[in-house]
């Protein structure tokens, strides 16, 4: 092959290696900066302590609770909605309705996060304050509701592609046996698409965990360990955003590497689970 | 074509107006070019923006960028050499000055006032009441003569210069409840209080407007006059920092802030001039 033909190959290869290396470099960087915490064993201590800078205690336990509770609650709210939307978009609606629903979902996925945050601050927060939760309206439940809307498009796209990619010969067989669309959905498409659905759920959970702006704007950011969903809470991501302005050498600043490491490891676990599931899915299809 | 001529005429008018309004303090910027990066304290931003607008309108070769981030960010970024001028609403600590070789210029004084929503009937508090509110001992507006609703606390992040002076001089270093909500800037605090009829927080006096109502502390209403004559004591200097002695555009900009025009801008934006 001439050089002219090989050039694109080289460029793509460099791009692929470069992006792969960057991911690893970020992890090494986090590890290097967080090393003083890890080697002294403080890392595990701060995971379990509270955040009381006045007394020299810099634990990130409240933020761990905040992050996981918000992400899980958002998932619990979003899952039924997304699954239902996917059912409608693939099977239950008329052809016109299906394309309208899918177009809306894709449009939703494209709306910047800050727009959701804005709408939440001016509409949802006052509503929650006056009608439901009391207090300031800035709390875990409010943030979870917004996050649920935020992660829905991701999950719906996954679910729809899973439900649509069922072998067409199976579908024809169900049709030939006189199965109704709902029966086809429940007894054929859903079990067949299960691995993709699980992958979509994990993607949604990862997105909910990783989001910074929504929790920073509507979760309240208090450093107390939340005891109820109506309490104000702070996520790991919001904590990083809030503490990053602190003095470089301070202990406050060092804790954000612990937050970063936890988030990074969480992402690694999510991606690993995703890979294993998709590999299993491919095997099953064959 | 007509439209173009009209807009050209308008911009010429504006330009000449700007020149005549600012006088000779911007003369030193003639023939200067380059980029000046400014970031840090959010209380400084209105003044920085106005100063930058005047300088850039007269000297198109100068670009001035202004970012927020808070006092901590301002000090850190200027120390790391990421920006030319870092703004801080507190004095840089001795450690910061020593490790980064910082040069500090104080160009205005700013008060920090307690604010509530304009719908709130409470207009005055004592220092003791304020301490009890922020420590979480007083939890209902009823105890202060207001509505029977829970008090929603709003605090700033630990690196905030506004928070530093509020905590030291208004709360007298008393504890702040862990249940307090935390917002990221003076602007965000104002938005939060303006949207929450039962909230209480604090902003720079320069940020006061109709959307929030100031609270008199021990009988003293925070405003320009009381900060200026010293009767309102929750006040601080507004600083701009450079790494080492200021040079070039940075020096000219800081000199401009201290010139009569610069000081007038600071006064117009609700701060007290130092000259």
Describe the protein.
The complex is a heterodimer of chains A (286) and B (275). With 286 residues, chain A is mainly α. Chain A has helices at residues 3-39, 42-48, 61-92, 95-110, 113-132, 140-164, 168-176, 181-192, 194-210, 213-218, 236-243, 251-285, and strands at residues 51-52, 57-58. Chain A has a two-stranded antiparallel sheet with strand order 1-2. The mean pLDDT of chain A is 88. Chain B is α/β, with parallel strands linked by helices and 275 residues long. In chain B, strands 1, 2, 3, 4, 6, 7, 8, 9, 11 and 12 form a 10-stranded mixed sheet that branches. Chain B has a two-stranded parallel ribbon with strand order 5-10. The relative contact order of chain B is 0.19. Chain A binds chain B through residues 50-54, 121-122, 125-126, 129, 134-138, 216, 220-224, 231-232, 234, 241-249, 252, and chain B through 69-73, 76, 93, 95-96, 99, 150, 152, 154, 157-160, 175, 177-184, 191, 195-196, 198-199.
Q: What topology emerges from the helices and strands here?
A:
The complex is a heterodimer of chains A (286) and B (275).
Chain A: H1 3-39, H2 42-48, E1 51-52, E2 57-58, H3 61-92, H4 95-110, H5 113-132, H6 140-164, H7 168-176, H8 181-192, H9 194-210, H10 213-218, H11 236-243, H12 251-285
Antiparallel strand pairs in A: 1-2
Chain B: H1 2-22, E1 34-40, H2 45-58, E2 62-69, H3 71-80, E3 85-88, H4 94-100, E4 102-116, E5 124-125, H5 127-135, E6 152-156, H6 161-170, E7 181-183, H7 186-195, E8 199-204, E9 213-214, E10 216-217, H8 224-228, E11 235-243, H9 248-258, H10 260-268, E12 272-273
Helix pairs in contact in B: 9-10
């Amino acid at each position: 092959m001439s050089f002219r033909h090989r050039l694109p190959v080289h460029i793509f290869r460099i791009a692929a290696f470069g992006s792969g290396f960057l991911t690893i470099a970020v992890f090494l960087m986090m590890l290097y900066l967080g090393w003083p915490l890890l080697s002294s064993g403080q890392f595990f201590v701060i995971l379990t302590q509270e955040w009381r800078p006045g007394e020299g205690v810099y634990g990130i336990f409240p933020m761990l609770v905040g992050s996981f509770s918000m992400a899980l609650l958002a998932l619990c709210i979003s899952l039924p909605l997304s699954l239902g939307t996917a059912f409608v978009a693939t099977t239950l609606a008329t052809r016109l309705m299906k394309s309208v629903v899918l177009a809306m979902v894709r449009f939703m996925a494209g709306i910047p996060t800050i727009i959701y945050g804005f709408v939440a601050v001016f509409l949802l927060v006052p509503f929650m304050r006056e009608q439901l939760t009391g207090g300031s309206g800035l709390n875990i439940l409010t943030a979870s509701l917004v996050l649920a809307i935020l992660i829905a498009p991701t999950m719906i796209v996954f679910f729809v592609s899973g439900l649509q990619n069922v072998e067409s010969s199976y579908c024809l067989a169900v049709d030939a046996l006189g199965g109704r669309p709902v029966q086809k959905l429940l007894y054929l498409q859903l079990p067949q698409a299960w691995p993709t659905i699980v992958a979509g759920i994990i993607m949604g959970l990862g997105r909910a965990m990783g989001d910074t702006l929504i929790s920073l704007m509507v979760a309240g950011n208090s450093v107390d360990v939340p005891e109820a969903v109506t309490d104000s809470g702070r996520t790991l991501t919001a904590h990083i955003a809030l503490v990053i302005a602190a003095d470089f050498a301070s202990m406050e600043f060092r804790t954000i590497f612990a937050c970063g490491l936890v988030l990074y490891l969480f992402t690694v676990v999510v991606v690993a689970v995703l890979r294993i599931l998709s590999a299993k899915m491919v095997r099953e299809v064959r | 074509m007509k439209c173009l001529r009209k807009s050209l005429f308008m911009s010429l008018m504006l330009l000449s107006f700007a020149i005549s309004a600012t006088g000779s303090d911007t003369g030193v910027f003639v023939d200067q070019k380059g980029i000046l990066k400014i970031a840090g304290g959010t209380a400084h931003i209105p003044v920085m923006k106005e100063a930058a607008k005047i300088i850039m309108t007269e000297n198109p070769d100068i670009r001035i960028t202004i970012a927020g981030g808070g006092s901590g960010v301002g000090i850190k970024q200027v120390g790391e050499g990421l920006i030319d001028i870092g703004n801080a609403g507190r004095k840089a600590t001795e450690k910061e000055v020593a490790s980064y070789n910082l040069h500090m210029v104080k160009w205005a004084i700013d008060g920090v006032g307690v604010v509530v929503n304009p719908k709130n009937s409470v207009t005055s508090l004592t220092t003791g009441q304020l301490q009890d509110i922020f420590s979480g001992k007083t939890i209902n507006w009823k105890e202060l003569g207001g509505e029977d609703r829970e008090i929603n606390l709003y605090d700033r992040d630990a690196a905030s210069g506004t928070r530093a002076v509020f905590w030291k001089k208004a709360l007298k270093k008393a504890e702040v409840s862990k249940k307090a909500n935390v917002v990221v800037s003076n602007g965000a605090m104002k938005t939060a209080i303006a949207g929450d009829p039962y909230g209480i927080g604090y902003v720079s006096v320069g940020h006061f407007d109709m959307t929030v109502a100031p609270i008199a502390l021990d009988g003293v209403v925070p405003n320009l006059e009381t900060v200026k004559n010293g009767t309102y004591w929750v006040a601080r200097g507004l600083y701009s920092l450079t790494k080492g002695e200021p040079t070039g555009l940075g020096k000219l900009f800081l000199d401009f802030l201290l010139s009569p025009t610069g000081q007038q801008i600071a006064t117009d934006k609700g701060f007290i001039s130092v000259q």
